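Quick check before the chapter quiz. The format below is the same one you will see on the exam, so make sure you can read both the input and the output lines.
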Amino acid sequence: MLELSVLKLLGLPVGSSEGYSLDGPVEIEGLIVKSELKGKCELMHIHEGVNVQFSNITISLAFNCEKCLEQFSTEISIDTASRQILLEAPADTDDRNDIFLINSNDQTIDLIEPLRQEIILHFPSIPVCSTSCKGICAFCGGEKNKKACNCKEIKVPENKPLSALKDLFKD
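Here is the expected output.
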């Protein structure tokens, strides 16, 4: 857990802020974390609660390559991101999962879920171990990065349903 107390900050005037360093080990549900989380966050007292500004966040995560299915690690970097953590939930909201609340019992905030969501937004669109990954052979299932296989590629005839139209315009 990455919990911070905001009791002192909420007692200060609106616009007051506090800075924190986020250097250390962290466990994030659903992600395979391979390095410590590094970065900074600044908490600012706003009318509705606290604005959290993350900056220079880096963390290394494990992914499975989309081509060869081998696990590899890659670093996720977040230059800047901002989330609001509210004192109470608004009456009209489209998505309750996008609302983060201050724990009213002890005036703390848990930064893990906002960080998890922001990290997921920065995932690679197609995770591959390297740009030169050859993947898996579609015929024998062997990994082409480790050894070449002798499978022959089957030529699939091109499907061009409108190709007959070019004969109409030959004149």
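If your answer matched, good. The helical segments are 7-10, 112-121, 165-168.
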